[in-house]
Amino acid sequence: MSRLDRIGFADEPLPLLGIAAWSGTGKTTLLEALLPRLAERGLQVAVIKHAHHEFEVDRPGKDSHRLRQAGAAPMLVASRRRVALMYETPGQEEPELPELIDLLRPRRPDLVLVEGFKAWPLPKLELHRPELGKPLLAPQDPWVRAVASPAPLALPAAVEGLDLNDHQALADWVAAWPARWPRGARPGTEVSP
Length: 193
Description:
The protein has 193 residues and is of the alpha/beta class. The chain contains 5 helices and 8 strands; from the N terminus they run αβαβαββαββββα.
């Protein structure tokens, strides 16, 4: 067991919260509903999203694509309204989460929500839909702090149950997370306010 597996991101100054669920549970849909509510509370929230497949940010034929294909590593594109940093990660099965967090650090977000990366040792809000027939992650994952589901579930003692359909209550819970950091950054710890 590595040090990261034991303590996770306890030394990380940026509050992190994973949004973990099986595919088809509605992680992105929920984040779309929560992000405006969190912004209304004055929180600047960054999101790291894991993609399970190859994806392109730019299109073939565009200057940035041509320069990246020619060997620019990394390729940074900037305008008045948007900045995009692109680089290849050959030989990596999956991006390293600490490196992605470092990319966000200069923006100083109040909270970083991490969609996907469910195997990483970081505190998580699990989304669960029983109708998908997938098992709960919480009983096997000491990093799950709360489970949001459309119906009440039997959960481990330190795991809070939330209503997946109550976006206001979920936004309240997520908005309170930075105040719980870093106390909640260790596995299996209770993080009540």
